[in-house]
Each structure stands twice: as structure tokens, then as C-alpha cells.
Amino acid sequence: MLGSRVRADFPFLEHPPLLILSIFFTAMRRVVVTGLGAVTPLGVGIRRSWKRLLDGQCGVVNVNHRDKRFAEQPCQIAAVVPQGSRDDGGWMASEWLSRNDERKMALFAQYAMAATEEALQDAGWKPTEFEQREVTGVCLGSGIGNFEEIYNTAVAYENGGYKKVNPLFVPKLLINLGAGHISMKYGFMGPNHAATTACTTGAHSIGDAARFIACGDADVMVAGGAESCIHPLAIGGFARARSLATDFNDNPEKASRPFDADRKGFVVGEGAAVLILEELEHARARGAHIYAELRGYGCSSDAHHMTAPKENGEGAFMAMKKALKQAQLPPSAVDYVNAHATSTVVGDAAENAAIKTLLLGAEGKQKPSDVNVSSTKGAVGHLLGGAGAVEAVFSVLAIQDNIIPPTINLDRLANGFECNYAAKHAQPRQIDVVLTNSFGFGGTNSSLCFARHTK
């Protein structure tokens, strides 16, 4: 009898999992962005990269000079981090790392270390107290990681045997060592996590890091992605899969052309980006500058094909829809979509279809031209595991500066592309809510929703 009365008065007790979920989501803590850092093909440092992006500049170059084996390949271009001094926006490892650290780290991890240093400086967060370091974690991944080390060691082993294997081979090979080196340098003892989900890695790393904070596992997280695999074998593999632009070797700056009717494939890029994510009250208590709030994180799977999305963009649609659901925002609230759009024929069309399905209609925009979309991959190429992190940084800055970064090389739209794609030039707009998308081989999809933080 008593059990019946309790169930009558408190019907949710008949569904204890629903009660647990209700309590869990009610207790979720809010997550904000307090620091940014990046190493990109547009330069070392987020402010330089952002300015050059808005100016319509491009980091794609011919790479024949790097290795004679590129000459035999159909694709001889890549988006590479420029070499040079830090003051000139170039990369010189010795300006960021000791010689011993440089020797121990793969290049993708070196880029991640530089992006982290900039982001921590930007956030004003370099704790020395045990209690603060204990609640600070790292979530940083890579899609491919140290490809060149694998290749060189395999060749050395084949030619010279066991003694030719570098003792640092395995530590330099492991993708989680990017996060590991960051935690060791700064003494961060919170969650130490590395996602590797192909080209969705950067977005997954940021979303997972946000959940660590939301669930109380950390107060601050270093979150992002890094990649460096500009190697003839890696690019040759993508070319054999018919994924790359191969018609622009003599005109590399025009190769990556998202949404354009003459797009032919993506351009491999390298670099790293890091966001400092922080629990809202923690950030407020120390007077940190808040760039934006990470309101939503959605994930899905196409369950369809190894490399190609569904043509209707169903997986992308589900990821974006889930991100908005967690953010508790309607489609009409989205001011800008930073698209994954890599410049492939099928991929760009599928994402475009998904964006229109989500953002047009009774709860969304009234006409396609009201939907603001752009892809920054025309300027920086496709950073694979680092792409989602770089684009998250650009999305946050779009909110801060109220501007849509341009889609360069967009000369002619194909049928079905009816939105506003910020072709060739940045567009000033009121930007309060941004969705940024990342999709990867294997059908994995993720979308992050950033929103302007209001007190």
C-alpha cells in the first residue's frame, strides 16, 4: 500500500533513470571560453591568423621543395605553417621549446604546446597552487599524429634492424602524448584525455572537455586539436582515395574552394588550436575575460560509409539538432554556421542540405538568404584532427568581433546553394549564436554551439 501511495504521489519514481537524468542535467555547470591560442597556415598566433583570415589571405602553397617525391603525385600542395621568427608570425621551434623538449616531441605536439602557451597567457591562468592544478585538465587529440616518425622508423628498421629504432619512437608516436606533454609542463593534474576521431577530433576534444567541467571533474580545461602530416605518403594516400584537389598545383591559393561549383577536393593542412574552457563561476571569481559560452555539443554517426556522408546530410543534421537542443535554443537563434565544408563535391552539398533542413522553416529562418554560412578552409586548408579546434576559435572570435569570416575562392555557386556564404569578403553582422561543424571518415559528426555570454 505504501509503495502504491508513493508512486501515486511521486510518479517519476516509477522511472528512476528519468529521475537521475533530470537531476544530472539540472546540476550541469556552465562552461565559458576564457583563452585562445593557435598555430595555423596563416601564421603563428591567433590574432595574426584571425586578421589574415578576415583579409582574405590564404596559407596554401606548393610543397615540391619539401620532398622530391611530391613531384610524382597528382596533388603537390598543402596548407603549411610558415617558417620564420615568432615576431613575424612564423614557426621556429626553438622559440617555444627547449632543445630537449623539441627532441622528445612530434611536430603536432610542438604546435599544440605553442598554442597552449598562447591560450594560457590569454586566459591569465598559470596556476602554481596544488588545489588549482588539481582541477585543471587537458583534452587534446590528433587525427593522424606523428606520421613522418612512423615512416622514417619503418624505413630505418627495414634497412638497419632493431638498433636503428629510436628509443623515443613510441613516446613520439602516441597521440595522447600531445596532452601528456602539456600536463607535464604546467603540472595540470585534472583529466588527461585524447580523442582521435579523424577530422572530428578537435570538436570532440572541446565538447568532451566541456563535459568534464559540466560534470564537476574539472574547473578548467585546455582543449583542442593538432595535426602535422605533410608527408608524401600521407598526401599520396588521400590522393589515391580521390579526396584531394589535384588541378591547382600551379595556383595553390585557389585550390580550396568550399561551396564553389568548381570545387574538386580538399587541401591537407597542419597546425593546432587550443581553447581554455572554464566553469562560469570559477571564471567570474577570478575576473577572467569571457569570450563566449559553450552552450551545446551534439554528436552523431552516419552509419553509412567509410569516407562519404549521406547525400541528404542526415548525420550532420542530427549533430546540429542535438547541439541546439542542449543549448536550449531554436534554429531561428543561429546567426552563423561555421561549416565543416572541406571543398569536396559530395561533402559540401550534404552539409549544405543539412543546414537548410535545420535552419529553414517554422522555427527557423524564413528564406535561404537569411542563413549565414562560411567555411574558413579556403584559407587554412583542412587541418584534419586540428580542424574542429581551429574553427571553434574562429567561431568564438566571430562572436566577439561581430563578423562572419569569408569563404575565399567562392566564384560561382552550384544549384542548391542558396544561403549567404560570405563569398570572398568578411561580413559585419550581429553574431550572438554560432554553430561550428566537424565531420570525419567513418561517418562521425559533431557540432558545437557557442553563444555570447551575457551577465
UniProtKB/TrEMBL annotation:
One of its GO terms (molecular function) is 3-oxoacyl-[acyl-carrier-protein] synthase activity. Residues 28-452 form the Ketosynthase family 3 (KS3) domain. It comes from the Eukaryota. GO terms for cellular component: mitochondrion. InterPro entries: 3-oxoacyl-ACP_synth-2, Beta-ketoacyl_synthase, Ketoacyl_synth_AS, Ketoacyl_synth_C, Ketoacyl_synth_N, PKS_Beta-ketoAc_synthase_dom, Thiolase-like. SMART domains: PKS_KS. CDD domains: KAS_I_II (cd00834). The keyword Secreted does not apply. The active site is at 199 (for beta-ketoacyl synthase activity). Keywords: Acyltransferase, Fatty acid biosynthesis, Fatty acid metabolism, Lipid biosynthesis, Lipid metabolism, Phosphopantetheine, Phosphoprotein, Transferase. GO terms for biological process: fatty acid biosynthetic process. It holds the Pfam family Ketoacyl-synt_C. Pathway: Lipid metabolism; fatty acid biosynthesis. NCBIfam families: fabF, PRK07314.1. Belongs to the thiolase-like superfamily. Beta-ketoacyl-ACP synthases family. This is 3-oxoacyl-[acyl-carrier-protein] synthase. It comes from Penicillium malachiteum.
